[in-house]
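Hey, resending since the last one bounced:
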Amino acid sequence: MNHVLVLGAGMVSRPLVRYLLDLSGVTVTMASRTVEKAEAIIDNHSDGTAVTLDVQNDDKLESLVKNADVIVSLLPYTFHVKVAKLCIIHKKHLVTTSYVSNEMQALDEDAKQAGILLLNECGLDPGIDHMSAMKIIHDVQNKSGYIQHFKSTTGALPSHENNTNPFGYKFSWSPRGVLLASRNPAKWLENGETVSIPGEKLFENYRLQDVPDVGTFENYPNRDSVQYKDIYGLKKAETVYRGTFRMTGWCETLRSIAEIGWLDDKEMDTSNIKTYADITAHLLSTNKDNLYGKTALTLHLPNYAAVLKRLEWLGLFSDILLPEDKNNPLDYLNVLTLEKMALPEDEKDMIVMHHEFTAVYDDKKEYRTSTLVNYGEPHGDSAVARTVAFPAAIAVKMILNNTIQMTGVHIPIIPEIYDPILDELETMNVKFKETKKQL
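The structure tokens again:
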């Protein structure tokens, strides 16, 4: 029997664990701080075990790693390197769905010497975005062409029929992760010029984009896109851009939330602060009298602005009591957004991923698109959970079957990894629609 250790029982873990439990000859141990979550996912399966784990308990974590063949870390990304180092010591393979950090990349040679694979970025974004883009990039290159312009954008959104709140967003994964990403600086290549924007200007740099047969969305830049010119082998590319889709109105609203100071995660003195209105007043250095109007003045907005209506709807001017176990604006906001904007079990979320390529050949130039639209299942797994979990689960199966034999730190950008994963995803109705036209 092969044994897989899954660390974490968060919002995307269930499809991965259930996929692995359906494999013949595989047992799964699921370790979580809240063991009840893991027990619910294992659901008394004969080949599954749920255990309690505090990641800070080094001895227990090491024991679990030592007794597994492949480890899947669905923990917050800050713990991945700690797990990876244990995998190197005990010669165990690791799969994550998170970006490769500098600390993780530094483990490449140690992982090779240990004869193990540390496969990262094997989820949705990052993950399926890499695989689907590289499939077309390699196709163009194999036909003696090159990519002149490349743009790739992904959004995890409510489905249109369930887009029923003024933010146009419902959380199908960690709200804190979404909010933290709102502070990231961004950099991309546009027509041969590098464009850089600081985190506080992120939401001032969006555009409206039509995705055929899906809708019109706000598209804002996602982190450092310039590095993908080398990662994807786009040597002649003049444009390399990766972005995020949101429903219209999101960017201006989040820009205002950030300007007020609600994305600050520094601990604050809350001895005289009891409500969300108290926090907003404190951040604006004022009192609660006419807080709506004072916020409008601070943001240079008229009182009728939709942004202010959204902040009011969320509760940032309200007397809702603050949770007692938090101590900074970001975490207070995290609690409130999850209460007000969680995806109900009977609703669907939607994944939209859209790639654009301008390919140049000796005798022609063509514009190609590749688009994924995928919906969650009411009372079942969300589209986010499925599209994050299944690529990682398929990769684990490939490692156990020795289909993947490389070692070191990798992401899924080579055909030996992405072709089998994309092929199997198609059988799960996670498939791309491609278009092509001559320019």
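The domain at 253-341 is CATH 1.10.1870.10 (Domain 3, Saccharopine reductase).

Sorry for the duplicate.
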